[in-house]
Amino acid sequence: MSILTRSKRVITTAEVMESRGINRREFLGFCSMMAVMLGLGPEGSGKIAQAMEVKPRVPVLWLHGLECTCCSESFIRSSHPQASDVILSMISLDYDDTLMAAAGDQAEAIVDEIIRDYKGNYILAVEGNVPLAHDGWNCIVGGRPFKSRLQETARHAKAIIAWGTCAAFGCVQAARPNPTQATPISQLVEHVPVINVPGCPPIAEVMTGILTYMLTFDRLPDLDRQRRPKMFYGQRIHDKCYRRAHFDAGQFVESWDDEGARQGYCLYKLGCRGPTTYNACSTIGWNDGVSFPIKSGAPCMGCSEEGFWDRGPFYERLQGMQQFGIESNADMVGKAAAVGIGAAVGAHMAVSVAKKALQGRKDNASDEGNPS
Amino acid sequence: MGYQRLPDDGDLPPQRIFDWPCRAWHWINALLVVVLIVSGYLIGTPLPSSSGDTSSLYVMGWLRFAHLASGQLFALGFLFRVYWAFNGNQYSWQLFLPTFWKKSWTDGFWAQIKWNLLLLKLAPRYVGLNPVANVIMLVLFVLPSLLTILTGFAMLAEVTGHDSWQYFCFGWMVSIFGNTLDLHLLHRLCLWALVCFTMSHIYIAIREDAVGRQTMVSTMLSGIRQYRR
């Protein structure tokens, strides 16, 4: 895979696709598909096609830190465009220790070569985060702490894509009490733009869409305050959920197998995180648009949100407040406070009334004693 | 000037405490708070599922409308009240800033505490806000209100989207917490703070009116405080 990128002549993505037997019709079809997904409007398709025919391919280094590889699993199941097309032709994925056949020193040497040959011109994709505790020995890649590998490669990268909630926000590794001090990529990198593509894993089409955008237009997509591309993370699951009508109507699944569940009512009461989760699941769907959690009757867990592991319980609407006991939530704390104040008010009122009554009797007695 | 203790003995002339904008704000605000608490509670923990044709039902929709509409009025009212703190009479700013650095205020505070602990025989008479009630207002009303308004508009920004003025003005709230579920949690805690406030506020006012030596509830209606011996 690296022969193509290392030859001196500039090779475009379109040429590579052609050499892979993808005909022009399929190529243009792919460009239209991407233009639609990225929301680029009617001229978008032509722009993508032209960019792919003119611009040289950009090498992508794909590193794996502290992670579970679910992002890679998702990525290789991309159906639009097909993963094989993406990996083999659209981008030159020069180094991905999970996907590539090579291993050992030779494979590791590719990283150094890319840094040398494409200084400031390659994209670094990072899956997983960096455990900083104990000098980083909780994640050793190629015999060295992952932290040092990340720092070397990040320094000369054009941009960094933080794949998945791990790389973007920390995910389960960084959940309280975070013993390995797992740290998101954006907190470790300076001077190089970082794009967060959260999700556990992110949707395959989102991943390929973002790569396509960056490679064809040679710039970052529009990002929100948490560095997520607005085109895919601009709206909440709730806003585009096909069960939204049931939410507005006040029709909820009350328990897992009731009539509401069979009718496909809203899963809000069972802790659906759709109203606080920014992702494209309810529009793009998973597995070639077949389904997504809510469509399968399971509430959204909010996996693409920061600290979602610490915002449990997953199947309850109100977030837990462990500070007040392991199973308490805002309502329990609030009700306890309100009941406490109610009791205090009641007691105070009773004592005040009793005292007034006593005083009244005393006053009456003294009035009778000395009539004035 | 704010709080000032009046002599314990003798007849005292009625005093004008609250000007009409303050009173209007108070009662409109009270109504809005009730609507907000009820609708807000039901949004977080909805009623049992409504049965019937989905297309003809709009239960959560109307609840959310009531909540969002009254919430925005509440915010406007709050803004007005802040403005009125600067432009109202000598008592109108006390809600936001008790004069705790003044001896007259701290003396009054302890006198009120003693009175509420039933240690004083004669209820203190004063002009301005009751220092204890003032502290409760600040801690259980003003600060939670500010927090509900901020979190509320930040959550509204989620609905209206990245291009909205709400996001432009309150989107930074999202950056503070990262996960917007925290906004909901804070908002919910503020709801309970306001419930606690409503209970203690009404009790203190009515008790002062009944057992103390000056009017409270009618003062908020007429603006004039009358004193008993």
Automatic annotation (TrEMBL), chain B:
It is a multi-pass membrane protein. The keyword Ribosomal protein does not apply. GO terms for molecular function: electron transfer activity; heme binding; iron ion binding. Keywords: Cell membrane, Electron transport, Heme, Iron, Membrane, Metal-binding, Transmembrane, Transmembrane helix, Transport. This is Cytochrome b561 bacterial/Ni-hydrogenase domain-containing protein. The lineage of its organism: Bacteria, Pseudomonadati, Pseudomonadota, Alphaproteobacteria, Rhodospirillales. The chain crosses the membrane at residues 24-44, 65-86, 135-157, 186-206. Belongs to the HupC/HyaC/HydC family. The keyword Acetylation does not apply. GO terms for cellular component: plasma membrane. It is found in: Cell membrane. It comes from the Bacteria. NCBIfam families: CytB-hydogenase. Its main location: membrane. InterPro entries: Cyt_b561_bac/Ni-Hgenase (IPR011577), Di-haem_cyt_TM (IPR016174), Hydrogenase_cytochrome (IPR051542), Ni-dep_Hydgase_cyt-B (IPR000516). Residues 18-223 form the Cytochrome b561 bacterial/Ni-hydrogenase domain. It comes from Paramagnetospirillum marisnigri. GO terms for biological process: respiratory electron transport chain.
